[in-house]
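I am writing to request your help with a piece of structural work I have in hand. The matter concerns a single protein, recorded as an amino acid sequence and a row of backbone structure tokens. Could you please explain, in whatever detail you think fit, how the structure tokens follow from the sequence? Thank you for your consideration; the sequence and its tokens are set out here:
>
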Amino acid sequence: MRTVSLIIVHCSANKAGSALRAEDIDRYHRSLGWKCCGYHYVIPTDGTIEAGRPPKMIGAHCKSHNSHSIGICYIGGLDADGKTPNARTVHFRFAPYFSDGATRVKIGGADVYLNATEQSVTPVDLGIFVDEAYYIVTDAWFGPGWDESLIKLEHSDADVYDDAVFSLTTVLQQGNIQFMGAKDVEAAKNDPGNEFLYAWGPGAENGKLYQGEEASAYTINTTGQYKVRIDMLERTYMIQAYTPVLYVVGAFNGWNASAGTSYVCEEESNVLTGFVDMTFDGTNEFKFTAQLDWEPVQYGAGAEAGTLADHGGNIKLEETGVMYFKLDLNEMTYVATKINSFGVIGNATPGGWDNETALTYNGGLVWEGTVELEPGELKFRANNAWDVSVGGNLDDLGTLNAPNCTISDAGTYKITLDLSDANQLKATLVKQ
């Protein structure tokens, strides 16, 4: 049990009448990578006392004092204009308990409290202004064509002081980007020659936003899709390359990008895997695209074998047939593995974990077989090796370190492994 010597009352930087509640703060704090709400209690504007993290858990609300304090946050610390501090009277009362370490008993009944007192508190105006809208500004924002060079970030319907996060997933070209609020844009338009003073960008501390002469630009080195996120209360930014899907286009489908229906699909951040039946007629060359078109994002052969390059040359395979691809767009590398067979392996199968039981390929990335199974676990494995395996939820299988599939009942099963839909790899086990 930790010793509590302080009760610290915070007032949120939200307008009076804000609808923010404990669950909203919890969601926001989790988005920052925290375990849960940093406060132990939250008091919305209706006066309800809502629980945050358990009191026995160390808080995350006041640096150097978290270990020995209880953190309380009341909502609506600003006046309706969002700037002027709004004084509040906070009432305190303490519930007495007797504890022997294992048992805790309240003294005096449910409605008895000690040392009831009150304290007038005034929130400190931090001078933080959050605009109603924010934009990505590109290299073009220095010159003409303002409307064409501004990319508006998305935002929730909440008040910007309740939710100061603006984000977007979009395609960005090679070049430099910064950020501007709506009022920054108007000010920059009216101040030719000093436009950069109104822009937000990286600075001395990594991940932090700065404005004016302290701000630099973030450089996009590779054209592609990116997740962009800024928090204008915390003054932080995140820019991360993001590719939800890649299509395979090549000689096997007539180099028709709009018909690139076979693709590899994302399983974790910028690491993509997938199966493609590539039967070539003539040259066995191909590329990857991030859309059913050649532009703006395509990847081809890099300078060395197994590497990718933005708008690189054609990739050539030594073998054709059913292929498994694993692409790491963080490292710009790929691995192509030809699939000669698929089978089931595990203590639920006849061969245990030493020998797989083969399935028959029926074309169209579908394998089938009838197998005697026992209660236990199994996975689907390719080429009698562990380089490529499939497992997890039968309705949504994974390939990257996926868990085993569980078999509850013994019996004869017709097994169908269907890898034709890159968005949903699946298997069915039908007891005969």
